[in-house]
Every structure is written in structure tokens, then in C-alpha cells.
Amino acid sequence: MTESTRCNAKIRPFSNPTELTCEKVDPHPHDEHFAVLCDYAYPGSETVINWQESDRRTFRGLYVPCGDNDFPCLLPQGHRGRHA
Questions:
Q1: Is residue 10 a contact partner of residue 59, using CB atoms and an 8 Å limit?
Q2: 3-state SS track over 8-77
Q3: Nearest by Cα to 31 from 6, 12, 4, 50
Q4: pTM higher than 0.90 for the full model?
Q5: Sequence ranges of the domains in the chain
């Protein structure tokens, strides 16, 4: 029997501290992640969030904001591409 490992990819999909962790349980790396955001739109709501590994908001571990520019960037440290 093979032990499955939950994916540890995270995303902050909005410009607030809302943080989601991928809910896929997959022993192999994958490029598409998903999580369910509960009670955000309205009480009792469930919103499925899908994102790609290449999304510049993707991070793992503790969220550390980008500090490589002269204005506050909403993306995680080490992101690729332009600042936001």
C-alpha cells in the first residue's frame, strides 16, 4: 500500500490575508492545484479555487511578502515576473 501525501502548495488569491492550501492528495507532482474557500461569498458558500503551479502567487511554507521593490508588492517572496 502506498502512502499518499497532501500537496503543500499555497496561494493568497486576493489582496487580503486569505490563504488556501491545495487539497490534492497525490504521490506525484502536479501542475494544477485546487482548494475550496468556505463562507467567503456568503455564509454557507463553497467556492472552488483552481490555480496553476506557474501562478506567481503560488508559495510553500510560511507566507513571506516580496521585499525586492520600492513599493508594497502583494506577491510572495521569490515570485517570478512583475510585481503586483
A1: yes
A2: CCEECCCCCCCCEECCCECCCCCCEEEEEEECCCCCCCEEEEEEECCCCCCECCCCCECCCCCCCCCCEC
A3: 50
A4: no
A5: 1-84
**CA dist., res. 37 & res. 48, Å (int):** 6
Instruction: List the chain pLDDT tens, one digit each, 84 residues.
Output: 445 588 999 999 998 999 999 999 876 778 999 999 999 999 999 999 999 999 999 999 999 998 866 777 889 988 888 888
Amino acid at 9: A
Grid coordinates representing 27? 504521490
